[in-house]
Every structure is written in structure tokens, then in C-alpha cells.
């Protein structure tokens, strides 16, 4: 598939764990296993700055609706809130285990994050209201939901901030109410761990990426299963195009097995599927290792990928891409 020469962002020493655009798409945030949180201009790949403070691998990052605050979760057992513009650390929420997922709701007032099940501690999904300084000061969430069965590996806010859609280690997807914490809906379409969940631009759909080598599209309110995109390798991340009926998936082998194969056999390409026909129509090479995360720019004219090789690549589509339609 045709892409214009990518912009290579070299700001991490270890593998990328997540990338995130802000709502306008002018900034791209990247986090990796090297405790740095970087922010870049997406138009030219210039690094704006780094949010310093974490002392362990950073697993997740999110930015609020008006690009005021940044939220990060790390293996140093903390979730941190930053001032986006100045890089100042505004709050540290300490936990008993690593913070795996985090996110702002649509208003930017409520944050959620999940902790890992490790060292004898259970997995919890925590909700804080940033409008109440007491909650932050006392490190007391207004809601903390234990997940005893299987730990949360990926989570996003649903539409209107009413619930969180969480993917679990056992392949389950749950909707947790942000008011009561109860499970509103529960489905199990995947057979293995869910590595990533992303929403469509209007939040009506979510796409899941799983270790079972598939990515699946769901209705975010009913959790009705809509489409399946099959590959031969574990899928680490999947994203929905904001302007085309396309999805991009990224994956590859487990990092342990990569050394024994050449890059060609390793299948380190981003793969494009038609969202309606479930057919693959293109691949983009680039990373020297599995792709850990993919995300479309909000205007749909480019996408970014972060790899096990520690690089973030911004790929701009060739104009012909937008004329593309699969034959029915």
C-alpha cells in the first residue's frame, strides 16, 4: 500500500507501550518501557518535551478533550496527572501494583485507571473525580471496583462517560458503570487476552485486538459483535479510521520468539482491512520488531505506529488511498 515516506520519532530507549493523539491531532504523546513520556508535533515529528517523574515502565497515556491535562500510568505503582503545556506534575495517585490502563472521560473531570493483579494484590478499576481535591489528596477514589476473575488488560470510556469498556486477560469484555461499578454487560468473543481497545471517533463502536490473532468490531453500547478481522499472528493493537471504512491492525510475534526469525517471516507490517467486507487490502512495512500500538490521526489522513524497536512512525497516506474502494 502506498504511504509517503514516514516521519521517524526517536525519543525512547525501549519498546513503545502506547501512543495517543490529542483531539485536534496536532500533538502525539508516546510512552514506553523506559519511564519517559514524550510529546511531539505530529506535523513534522519535532519533540516538544518530556514529562519526567515516573521511575518504571509507563504502560498507558491519555490526554483530555481540551489538551489541558495528561494522564499516565506506570509500573512504578503510580498514576500521574500532568499539566500538558508546562510539564508540571499536578498529582500522584499511588497504587499497590502497576497501573495498566488509564483514561479521561469526555468531560475531562473523571479519570479511571486499572491496576494489575500482582504481588498478592487484586486488580482494581478506580474512578477519581478531579473536581474534588480531597479525593486526590487522600488518594481515595469515589469508586473502586475489584476484578477478581481476570485482570483488565485494556480499557476505554464508553459514550457519554456512563461506563468503561474493559478487555480482560481471559478474552472477556465488560461494561463497568462509572456510577455504581456494577457490570452492565459482559461478552466473551475472544479466546485469549485482549491487548488493546480503541473507540471510533464518534464513540459508537470499539475495536479490540487480541492475542488470539483477531481484531473484532463491537457496538459500544450493546457490545454486539459486528465484524472480525483475522491475521496469523497475535494482534497487539487496532484502530478505526475516522473518515474511511477502514481499520488498521498491528502485531507480530511475541518478543521472545522474534530473534529466531527474519523480519519478513516475523510479519511486522501494519495491515489494513476494509471495515465492512473484512478483507485485507494493504500492508505497510517499517518496524524492526512487532508493532505494539497503532492510532489514526483524527483527520484520517495519516496514522502512527509504535514498535518493540522503540520507534514511533508517522505515516501519511498517498492521496490515491482516499479514492480506494473495494469491489463489492
TrEMBL record:
WD repeats lie at residues 9-50, 51-92, 187-228, 284-314. SMART domains: WD40. GO terms for biological process: formation of cytoplasmic translation initiation complex. One of its GO terms (molecular function) is translation initiation factor activity. Gene3D superfamilies: YVTN repeat-like/Quinoprotein amine dehydrogenase. The keyword Cytoplasm applies. Pfam families: EIF3I (PF24805). The keyword NADP does not apply. Keywords: Cytoplasm, Initiation factor, Protein biosynthesis, Repeat, WD repeat. PROSITE patterns: WD_REPEATS_1, WD_REPEATS_2, WD_REPEATS_REGION. One of its GO terms (cellular component) is eukaryotic 48S preinitiation complex. It is found in: Cytoplasm. It comes from the Eukaryota. Its main location: cytoplasm. PANTHER family: EUKARYOTIC TRANSLATION INITIATION FACTOR 3 SUBUNIT I (PTHR19877). Component of the eukaryotic translation initiation factor 3 (eIF-3) complex, which is involved in protein synthesis of a specialized repertoire of mRNAs and, together with other initiation factors, stimulates binding of mRNA and methionyl-tRNAi to the 40S ribosome. The eIF-3 complex specifically targets and initiates translation of a subset of mRNAs involved in cell proliferation. Component of the eukaryotic translation initiation factor 3 (eIF-3) complex, which is required for several steps in the initiation of protein synthesis. The eIF-3 complex associates with the 40S ribosome and facilitates the recruitment of eIF-1, eIF-1A, eIF-2:GTP:methionyl-tRNAi and eIF-5 to form the 43S pre-initiation complex (43S PIC). The eIF-3 complex stimulates mRNA recruitment to the 43S PIC and scanning of the mRNA for AUG recognition. Component of the eukaryotic translation initiation factor 3 (eIF-3) complex, which is composed of 13 subunits: EIF3A, EIF3B, EIF3C, EIF3D, EIF3E, EIF3F, EIF3G, EIF3H, EIF3I, EIF3J, EIF3K, EIF3L and EIF3M. Belongs to the WD repeat STRAP family. This is Eukaryotic translation initiation factor 3 subunit I. The lineage of its organism: Eukaryota, Metazoa, Chordata, Craniata, Vertebrata.
Amino acid at each position: 500500500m502506498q504511504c509517503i515516506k514516514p516521519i521517524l520519532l526517536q525519543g525512547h530507549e525501549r519498546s513503545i507501550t502506547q501512543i495517543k493523539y490529542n483531539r485536534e491531532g496536532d500533538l502525539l504523546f508516546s510512552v514506553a518501557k523506559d519511564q519517559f513520556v514524550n510529546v511531539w508535533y505530529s506535523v513534522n515529528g519535532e519533540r516538544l518535551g518530556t514529562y519526567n517523574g515516573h521511575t518504571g515502565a509507563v504502560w498507558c497515556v491519555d490526554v483530555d478533550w481540551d489538551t489541558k491535562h495528561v494522564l499516565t500510568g506506570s509500573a512504578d505503582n503510580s498514576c500521574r496527572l500532568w499539566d500538558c503545556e508546562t510539564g508540571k506534575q499536578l498529582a500522584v495517585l499511588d497504587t499497590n501494583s502497576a497501573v495498566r490502563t488509564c483514561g479521561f472521560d469526555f468531560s475531562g473531570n473523571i479519570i479511571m485507571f486499572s491496576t494489575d493483579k500482582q504481588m498478592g494484590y487484586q486488580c482494581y478499576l478506580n474512578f477519581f473525580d478531579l473536581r474534588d481535591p480531597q479525593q486526590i489528596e487522600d488518594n481515595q477514589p469515589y469508586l473502586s471496583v475489584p476484578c477478581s476473575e481476570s485482570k483488565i488488560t485494556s480499557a476505554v470510556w464508553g459514550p457519554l462517560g456512563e461506563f468503561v469498556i474493559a478487555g480482560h486477560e481471559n478474552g472477556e469484555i465488560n461494561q463497568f458503570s462509572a456510577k455504581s461499578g456494577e457490570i452492565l454487560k459482559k461478552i466473551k468473543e475472544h479466546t485469549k487476552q485482549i491487548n488493546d481497545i480503541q473507540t471510533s471517533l464518534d464513540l459508537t463502536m470499539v475495536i479490540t485486538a487480541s492475542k488470539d490473532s483477531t481484531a473484532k468490531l463491537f457496538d459500544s453500547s450493546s457490545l454486539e459483535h459486528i465484524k472480525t478481522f483475522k491475521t496469523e499472528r497475535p494482534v497487539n493493537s487496532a484502530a478505526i479510521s475516522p473518515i474511511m471504512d477502514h481499520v488498521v491492525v498491528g502485531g507480530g510475534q511475541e518478543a521472545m520468539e522474534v530473534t529466531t526469525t527474519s523480519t519478513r517471516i516475523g510479519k511486522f507490517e501494519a495491515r489494513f482491512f476494509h471495515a465492512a467486507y473484512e478483507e485485507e487490502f494493504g500492508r505497510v512495512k517499517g518496524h524492526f520488531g512487532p508493532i505494539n500500538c497503532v492510532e489514526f490521526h483524527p483527520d484520517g489522513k495519516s496514522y502512527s505506529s509504535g514498535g518493540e524497536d522503540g520507534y514511533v512512525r508517522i505515516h501519511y497516506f498517498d492521496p490515491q488511498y482516499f479514492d480506494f474502494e473495494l469491489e463489492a
